[in-house]
């Protein structure tokens, strides 16, 4: 097995020949979370996360492009926009990129 550097894995995705951009590296998680949507809080489970977004299993049913806040504890939260929904699963894009330190904290909290 060939060793790969962390910087290479987390590097900004390149634009492919067809004009699409590769996704950022995603990391599996199974972390209880809270989602704030329309001034209400809902239970959620963070399923995976990258520097740019996440997938959650959530009791809320937010509309596309709605703004939400994801919180795992009092010290960790991030604002995001809903990009897709399928039943109780939502995909979000963060309003800002997570730093590598923040991403590590979200993953380590799992």
Describe the structure.
By secondary structure, this protein is mostly beta strands. Helix content is 13%, strand content 46%. It has two helices and six strands. The chain has helices at residues 6-10, 100-108, and strands at 27-37, 40-49, 53-58, 67-73, 76-86, 89-94. The protein has a six-stranded antiparallel beta barrel with strand order 1-2-3-6-5-4. A hairpin with a 2-residue loop joins strand 5 and strand 6. The model has no long low-confidence stretch (mean pLDDT 83).
Give the end-to-end Cα distance, rounded to a whole number of Å. 27 Å
- Portion of residues in beta strands equals over 45%
Secondary structure tally, helices = 2
Work out the helicity level: 10-25%
Q: Within the largest sheet, what's the order of strands?
A: 1-2-3-6-5-4
Key words describing this protein structure:
110 residues, mainly beta, six-stranded antiparallel beta barrel, 6 strands, globular
Q: Helix and strand layout, with pairings?
A:
Blueprint: H1 6-10, E1 27-37, E2 40-49, E3 53-58, E4 67-73, E5 76-86, E6 89-94, H2 100-108
Antiparallel strand pairs: 1-2, 1-4, 2-3, 3-6, 4-5, 5-6
